[in-house]
Amino acid sequence: MSDRAAMAKARRLVVKAGSSSLTTPEGTIDANRIDALVDVLAARRANGTEIVFVSSGAIAAGLGPLGLTRRPRDLATQQAAASVGQGMLFARYTASFARYGLTVGQVLLTADDMMRRSHHRNAQRTLAQLLALGVLPIVNENDTVATDEIRFGDNDRLAALVAHLTRADALVLLSDVDALYTGDPRKPGARRIEDVHGPDDLRDVELGGSGRVGTGGMVTKVEAARIAGIPVVLTNAASAARALAGEPVGTLFHPARSRRMSTEDLWLAHATTGQGRVMLDPGAVDAVVRHHKSLLPAGVTGVSGEFAAGDPVDLCDPGGGVVARGLVNYDAFEIPDLMGRSTRWLARELGPEYEREIIHRDHLVVLEGGL
Question: Which residues of this UniProt protein bind substrate (predicted)?
């Protein structure tokens, strides 16, 4: 089955709409656009497909009521606008989907929720139960509490992570442009790219920002497609119905034909941030990256940062490049005394509780740069 056909046959779809797909030229929420998009999603839902909808637009929805003419730049006002707008946006969706007898459920997430393993699992259970109950989940970043340091980036990465959480079959990213182009599509010479199989297909692409009231650009969408690991179509809201039907619209990102990452590997690779660094000697790099072994104290040459046992940390090669990430078994201050030692020696000299790995292979993922 082709990846376009997989889009048409998908049993579970994640659809993400950016702010630009939901707003007027002035940046306020457009009820007609929302209804048109809901018409498309409800029709696909009526055909038996489970839909998870990732929606931007909370900040945009709050601009008008607050008397703002443009998206605020400071974080506090963005959070205030989101606080006002989120309820209005969800109420609009509730009314629009109710036209088709569909119940919707609101799920607000931050990147911090995805970084904390317990929160990550709770989000996964909640989404699974909503789908089991026949509810259409509407997911958004919780802009009222998110900070600049822990933002997803226009919900594109959030949509990719939600696709993994729900084990979706395909992902549709709706933007303010109809496809990925080699340059600004408003300028002469920009060429539309119909298919992306890998980095070589992006060699001539100038990835710049776009969107009137959103925060993301093509960079976040390409990154989301890479993370998703399933067929991803990038197009505009006007082409949503055709994209969901598997027609040749937009840009199709073909997934790499490799093993789909486990939920924990995905969480480690894309939803966490290393809280510190552990430096490895060449032998340890080879063991971890090529042979998928646990990281033992004998292969550690240095440590930096402040972290506690159970935190995610980055593993670095002798040149400082990050090659893997894992959940560490020791506090940062303990590791210098363990470096270069065998676990047998440590158990004999320090006690049996030290006869364990720095990071066990079951809680370690090799990152793309380390492959």
Answer: 56, 143, 155
